[in-house]
Design a protein that fits this description.
The protein is of the alpha+beta class. Helices cover 41% and strands 22% of the residues. Strand 20 (597-603) and strand 21 (606-612) form a beta hairpin.
Length: 669
């Protein structure tokens, strides 16, 4: 059974996320019946899978949870805010158990026992008064015909026994491997076909079982022998009609052209009847391997293209035409494979309704969360690394940004604060913004704190330069130290993590209006647009997103600052010049700015002029991890292979800027 563990883990993760999302969106005083059914189905599916695979801790907790949810969905027990809180805590405990079964930690058995006891207490509370006020809905019982292929490695008896806990199950025919005789059973219970299918899909392959619905003898009058396959109205799943699909639908009946062969109920995305979108789970390592091979193909295509430039276009017309076609096909293949790794940012955003709900309650604040752009897609590598930085930003906005209701009312604001998460495309970048309508950053307090810490903080600093100070390690203006207080707590970690992804962080704030922190990221980790430059005899690549312009300065635009080196005047603004030849100790690199090229780049909240010998051109480059194959090199973020087969290093603009800033601060000291 262990071969199916990963399927259960993936499905359980989805069900737990679905439960939390539905519960957070519910009004406990008048929940939608469809949502209650969906939450129950999620708990039921987790319980069935956990029991099948022997994860007793999860099965025990979800058994109690399922019973409570069943009463709520049938209307014999009212949903309450307290109940929602306990169910959410149960979801957290189940997530911990799931992580433990994945081998990623140890679950808290004491916490699970406490939550289970609380659920049992809620389930034991009398319901008569509630039932008098709100008559329970009549529970519909489904009669399902089950057909399962005999499998050598699955105990079908145990699978059916697990189902029998939820209704009346009779085995009509026992399966036989030798004679290829299927198991046949009749199952009557409150569970509909989709719920039963979800349970079965954890234990047996989806193509090895069929579910047929009895639509009722009284209504149909023919024992369902001539019914067509039809979508079940409650769940949109295409199911077989009665009689195990032994008879085709009558001519002109408008039914399907033949009996259905089963349903894919283990994957919610596939529940769309005929013509619905289908999906397949693929290990991310296989996708990464495919992306790496496509990268190698792009490199080979670049080599061929470069070699083709030396050929006579008339004598080698067909060859050059083939190289051109290869270039187009390689680009399309590259884009298609990259799209496989792209994941909606909703996978990150969807965890924050719970974070905001819980933390706002702890802080005694009223906060409305707004999200937009959830379908904006990012590279899966970014999705995994974004969680911690965004969590820091959201927690700090709630604690240090948005004021308490009384303080907001005193300032003429709505007592309910607003926190906004937004994602959108901007050029070749993805931008994620965390905005609040709170008190805003205090310029005076930030400058005062910076001076107390010994940082250079003159009054002449621009607002952007002042806001940048909050990213200094350990910087905080909080009056009290709590587990979440201070907008500076963890902000240096946020900046470092974002820069490690090739991105940058921007801050915009206004007193009593609010603060917006924007994270700018490239579209993908694997392939980047870059500009190749020559320094001495070496070739380097600059991320194109950081390049603003390039120029050859006039001698009178270059000034020397005592002990600081040279600066260049660009439209009235003096920018420090960083000689990359000197930075990387490259012999024969040009040193005179008027004889070289200056590339103006954006780094953090400032700009630099990088001195290079020459510009070669811009194109897409396949990024290779340098640390994996060599070691960390200061000022270098990765490597790539050029069209001529040579290796070129990719510049880490942010690291070069930090090095230059530290050198300047050391001189000041």
């Amino acid at each position: 059974m262990s071969q199916f563990h990963q399927v259960f883990f993936d499905e359980a993760d989805e069900h737990l996320a679905s439960m939390e999302s539905l519960l957070l969106g519910m009004d406990p005083s008048c929940p939608q019946q469809e949502d209650l059914h969906a939450v129950f189905r999620a708990a039921h599916s987790i319980k069935g899978g956990a029991a099948t695979f022997g994860f007793a801790d999860m099965a025990d907790l979800t058994h109690v949870l399922e019973g409570l949810l069943d009463e709520v969905r049938r209307g014999t027990r009212d949903l309450s805010a307290d109940m929602v809180d306990v169910i959410l805590r149960a979801k957290d405990a189940l997530l911990g158990m799931l992580a433990a079964h994945k081998g990623k930690g140890v679950s808290d058995a004491a916490l699970a026992a406490t939550i289970k006891a609380r659920l049992e207490t809620l389930a034991a509370e009398p319901t008569a008064a509630r039932a008098e006020r709100k008559p329970p809905e009549e529970t519909r019982h489904w009669t399902l015909y089950l057909e399962l292929d005999p499998l050598a490695d699955v105990d079908i008896d145990a699978v059916l026994e697990s189902l029998a806990e939820h209704g009346d199950l009779s085995v009509v025919q026992r399966g036989e491997m030798v004679e290829n005789l299927p198991w046949v059973a009749v199952f009557t219970s409150p569970l509909d076909a989709a719920e039963v299918a979800e349970s079965l899909a954890f234990a047996v392959p989806q193509d090895s079982f069929h579910i047929n619905v009895d639509h009722g003898v009284e209504e149909e009058g023919s024992f369902g022998l001539f019914l067509e396959a039809s979508p079940e109205p409650d769940n949109g799943v295409w199911l077989e009609g009665d009689g195990f699909g032994l008879f085709e639908p009558p001519p002109g009946d408008g039914g399907s052209s033949g009996p259905a062969t089963g349903i894919d109920a283990a994957k919610p995305a596939a529940r769309a009847g005929l013509g619905g979108e289908s999906s397949i789970r693929v290990n991310i390592d296989k996708v990464d391997l495919l992306l790496n091979l496509v990268g190698e193909l792009v490199i080979t295509q670049s080599m061929l293209e470069q070699s083709g430039t030396r050929l006579d276009p008339v004598a080698h017309e067909r060859l050059l035409s083939g190289i051109g076609a290869l270039q187009r096909n390689a680009r399309e293949l590259q884009e298609a494979v990259m799209s496989i790794r792209m994941t909606p940012i909703a996978f990150v955003f969807n965890r924050f309704p719970r974070v905001v709900r819980d933390l706002a309650g702890r802080l005694g604040k009223r906060v409305e969360l707004q999200m937009s752009g959830e379908n904006t897609e990012l590279d899966k590598g970014f999705i995994e690394k974004l969680s911690d930085p965004l969590t820091h930003l959201v927690r700090n906005s709630l604690d240090h940004g948005i004021e308490a209701p009384e303080a907001r009312q005193a300032r003429g604001k709505d007592p309910v604060g607003r926190l906004t998460l937004r994602a959108f495309h901007q050029g070749s970048n993805i931008v994620i913004e965390v905005s609040d309508d709170g008190a805003g950053l205090s310029r005076e307090r930030i400058l005062s704190t910076a001076r107390q810490r010994g940082l250079a903080a003159p009054d002449s600093l621009s607002d952007a330069e002042v806001w940048a100070l909050i990213f200094e390690a350990g910087f905080s203006t909080a009056d009290e130290v709590t587990d979440v207080s201070g907008r500076g707590v963890g902000m240096d970690v946020v900046k470092r993590n974002i820069q490690s992804m090739g991105g940058r962080v921007e801050v915009d704030s206004m007193a009593d209006v609010g603060t917006t922190i924007g994270i700018h990221l490239p579209l993908t980790l694997a392939i980047m647009d870059g500009m190749s430059v020559r320094i001495g005899a070496e070739t380097y690549v600059m991320p194109l997103g950081a390049v603003l312009e390039s120029l050859q300065p006039a001698p009178h635009d270059i000034k020397s600052v005592a002990a600081r080196g040279q600066v260049v005047c660009i439209r009235g603004e003096y920018l420090p010049i960083v000689s990359l030849g000197r930075f990387f100790a490259i012999p024969e690199a040009r040193e005179m700015p008027s004889e070289a090229i200056l590339v103006i780049v954006e780094a953090g909240h400032g700009r630099l002029a990088l001195l290079v010998d020459d510009l070669i051109g811009q194109q897409q480059f396949v990024v290779k991890n340098l640390e994996t194959n060599y070691r960390k090199v200061d000022g270098i973020s990765g490597a790539t292979i050029l069209g001529d087969g040579q290796v070129a290093l990719i510049l880490d603009i942010a690291a070069i800027a930090r090095h230059n800033q530290r050198a300047a601060q050391a001189l000041d000291a």
